[in-house]
Amino acid sequence: MNTNQPSPFQTILKWFVPIAAIIAFGAWMYISPEGALGKLDAIGYAVCHRIDARSFQIGGRQLPLCARCTGEFYAAGMALLFQLGMSGKRSKLPSRGIIAVLILFFLAFGIDGSNSYLYLLKQTSGGALDQIPNLYIPNNTLRLFTGSGMGIALAAVLYPIINQSLWRETDDRHALEWKNFGILIALVIAVNLLILTDSPIVLYPIAYLSALGTLSLLVLVFTILWIIIMKQDNTFDNIRQLWLPFASGLTLALLMILSIDLLRLQFTGTWSGFPGLSG
Residues 229, 212, 154, CA angle at the centre, nearest 5°? Predict the structure, then answer.
């Protein structure tokens, strides 16, 4: 008996998921702002406060994500692509030494984010929190660097977990070793320094990479979630077999973005940052 024959439920899914993806994508395209950058704004809108003063600008127009989220999601997207090219199906988490560095990246992200949030609250609370000192005056340079460190950390952990979940046969080596880790950090630092030039030649690609990095992370997480729910862990041999889980992950990601966009738009009435928050 052929046990590889799809069940009736799987057959239905093969028709339903692509249709649901098209509907979700169409609905999101309809409600999102006009233009390519407007569509990127709508992705950032679902995960980022989009405060203008805390964002990089292209000719007076803010990027789709704030400085911290720009760093986090462009670096995560770049780190995932870097590992895909360098590590293949390697499925082992980084060594303890690299994990220790990643924890430092996480702590820097948390400390700078908390300090920055406290500074924002002090600016908008009419002096009620003035007695609480800030560690330092926050700025977009620190937001960019701590965000990109967090992006590297996310990708360094997520990539081997993806490989552990997908493939029937994996490469049981560290997905990220010291040499490649150093190269990746150097690449991110170089891109950060280019971003700080405020050149449109740099910021336009970063706008796309950060927003698409956001979408990619959501799609990957929902794809793995779908695979776990469908009990298809470690059943895939090549990328071509992943079209249905990937389409399912894309559909769920678009539905999440669409839902948050509609809720936030209803609540604030604007595609920009939350009203009343600045600085």
Answer: 60
pLDDT bucket at 57, cuts 50 / 70 / 90: very high
Q: For residue 10, is it within any domain?
A: no
Q: 57-58 and 90-92: which strand pairing?
A: unpaired
Residue 24 resides in a domain: no
Please identify which residue in the block is written with the tokens 């940052």. 273
Cα–Cα distances (Å) from 271 to 34, 44, 214, in that order, read 11, 10, 17
**Structural domain of residue 55, as residue ranges?**
43-268
Query: Of 35, 88, 44, 6, which Cα lies nearest the Cα of 210?
Result: 44
Instruction: Give the whole-angstrom CA distance, residue 76 versus residue 116.
Output: 22
Rounded to two decimals, what is the model's pTM? 0.90
How is residue 246 written in tokens?
A: 């990937």
- What residue spans of the chain are helical by DSSP H? 8-31, 36-45, 67-87, 96-124, 140-166, 178-195, 200-229, 243-268
Q: How far apart are CA 271 and CA 43, in angstroms?
A: 11
What is the tens place of the pLDDT at every residue in 196-255?
999 999 999 999 999 999 999 999 999 999 999 888 999 999 999 999 899 999 999 999
DSSP output for 177-231:
-HHHHHHHHHHHHHHHHHHTTT-HHHHHHHHHHHHHHHHHHHHHHHHHHHHHHTT
Query: How many domains does the chain divide into?
Result: 1
CA 236 remoteness from chain centre: 25
Tell me if 68 sits within 8 A of 146, measured CB to CB: yes
CB 12 within 8 A of CB 6: no
DSSP state of 57: E
CA gap 128, 24 in Å, rounded: 44
Beta bridge partner(s), residue 171 = 90
Asked whether residue 9 is assigned to any structural domain, the reply reads no
